[in-house]
From TrEMBL:
The keyword Nucleus does not apply. SMART domains: Trans_reg_C. CDD domains: trans_reg_C. The keyword DNA-binding applies. Keywords: DNA-binding. This is Transcriptional regulator. Residues 12-109 form the OmpR/PhoB-type domain.
Amino acid sequence: MMGTMTRDDRASYTLSFAEFDIEPRLRRLSRGGAVVRIGARAFDILWLLAEAPGQVLEHRYLLERAWAGRVVGEANLRVQIAALRRALDIKGVERYILNVPGRGYLLTAPVVRR
């Protein structure tokens, strides 16, 4: 399964932050040119967060968008966020994805669209 982004939703641009590039047309996350393997849901969540850096995206919004309206619990979201944090881990560097208790998650790094 390719996740919930349709072919029309896949932007023609790349979003970059820190050492990472997110390429939606290829559904690829890379770090310094090397592919970083993440699942389809994790990719969709990362894309949503990168489209709104520094903004808190509510749990409900992320669940609705990443699971295309399917009813899933917040535990599913936490599992995907944990996977993203592992994939984005750089020793000695602050986490890129922060939890805002009772509200949602945000990407802390500045993002450049190219």
